[in-house]
Design a protein that fits this description.
Blueprint: E1 3-14, E2 18-21, H1 22-25, H2 33-40, E3 44-47, H3 54-69, E4 78-82, H4 93-100, E5 107-111, H5 117-131, E6 136-144, H6 154-157, E7 162-174, E8 182-190, E9 198-200, E10 213-215, H7 217-239, E11 248-251, H8 256-266, H9 277-280, H10 287-297, E12 306-313, E13 317-324
Helix pairs in contact: 3-4, 7-8
The structure holds oxa(dethia)-CoA.
Length: 325
């Protein structure tokens, strides 16, 4: 029987020009390179200039992904942009990207699941593509979190950065075997009772301001490893695959200690973990596509390999996906 699967055609990323080191942050708040590296694994993050908006970074990443895929932008009929830091309250930043790329057909919308945004967006695009309603999707994670940070709060401002990553997916017919390319399995979760642990204290309908990020880091950390392990085990159960089958584990890059603990709990070999948190910090919805694109560009991720992505963030929301690259 022939089935449709969402196959990755290419990926790309974009980072703001300014690389802010831990030493530079230490001139602004009472912190140190030693503390940040030991507690998070972060050495530096990129911070967007005024004109490097979310749509600008997203468009740069999208262009790189389209070029890497070797397709015409005009053939894309679905643009999904995962972001918690849109250019405007409305319209969707995805429509700005669509216009910048010269795409005049199909659908374009933003998706808000904070740090899980890219896993949610890949899952959503997959549902569209395997239904046969759309043929080529551009899935982007893009953020300018530096705009919503409280730069006087050392417990949060040292953790985050800006950037964008994008992936082009195409619906392709096949036998639907586990060895065939494409998205094999997706698993999404949410539990809105955890609002107070990670949120932004402003918004159009409450304060009519943008607000600042607030986080109880220790609490988020505590839940993250348990929730992530559960949603990865769900992916293994659905496919019959195991940790030993994973070629590349590409987790949301929030904290190296969370990534190490999750990999250890699941028995994933550290040599198969893609780590970019050291150079990018936590870029929320952009972190996974940034890591995917980095590992594709340097030759680590190759066609036919098994890639596991996962994320957990505000809401809480969390999820995983297994992709045969
Ligand atoms: O992407 C969304 C999901 N978010 C996350 O996954 C983040 C999850 N949480 C974390 O990554 C960690 O909890 C943090 C990195 C945020 C914090 O690490 P921690 O080991 O949980 O540290 P802590 O909050 O327990 O703080 C330890 C100490 C405190 O001092 P006292 O109370 O022990 O005297 C803090 O005040 O470190 C202090 N501290 C800092 N010191 C220097 C907190 N932030 C800083 C800082 N520099 N930037």
């Amino acid at each position: 029987m022939t089935v449709l699967r969402s196959v990755v055609l290419g990926c790309g990323h974009a980072l703001p020009a300014h690389r802010m080191t831990n030493a530079e942050i230490a001139t602004r708040v009472d912190t140190s390179d030693e503390w940040i590296v030991e507690r998070t694994g972060i050495n530096a993050r990129h911070i967007a200039a005024k004109d490097e908006t979310t749509s600008v970074l997203a468009t740069r990443a999208a262009r790189a992904a389209i070029e890497n895929a070797g397709i015409e932008a005009s053939s894309i009929d679905l643009v999904i942009l995962a972001t918690a830091t849109p250019d405007f309250t409305f319209p969707a930043t995805a429509t700005q990207v669509q216009a910048a790329l010269g795409i005049t057909q199909g659908a374009a919308f933003d998706l808000q699941a904070v740090c899980s945004g890219f896993v949610y967006a890949m899952t959503t695009a997959d549902k569209f593509l395997i239904s046969g309603s759309h043929k080529r999707a551009l899935v982007i994670g893009a953020e300018t979190f530096s705009r919503i940070l409280d730069w006087e709060d050392r417990t949060t401002c040292v953790l985050f950065g800006d950037g964008a990553g994008a992936v082009v997916l195409e619906a392709q017919p096949g036998a639907g075997e586990i060895a065939d390319r494409g998205i094999l399995s997706t698993h999404l979760r949410a539990d809105g009772r955890h609002l107070d642990k990670l949120y932004v204290d402003g918004g159009p309908s409450t304060t009519a301001t943008t607000g600042h990020l607030r986080m109880e880091g220790k609490e988020v950390f505590r839940y993250a490893v348990t929730f992530l392990a559960e949603v990865i085990e769900a992916a293994f159960k659905a496919t019959g695959l195991t940790a030993a089958d994973i070629d590349w584990f590409v987790p949301h890059q929030a904290n190296r200690r969370i990534i190490d603990a999750t990999a250890r709990k699941l028995g994933i070999d550290p040599a198969h973990v893609v780590l970019t948190v050291g150079d990018h910090g936590n870029t929320s919805a952009a972190s996974i596509p940034l890591a995917l694109s980095t590992a594709c560009a340097d030759g680590r991720i190759k066609k036919g390999q098994l890639v596991l992505i996962e994320a957990m963030g505000g809401g809480f929301t969390w999820g995983s996906a297994l992709i045969r690259w």
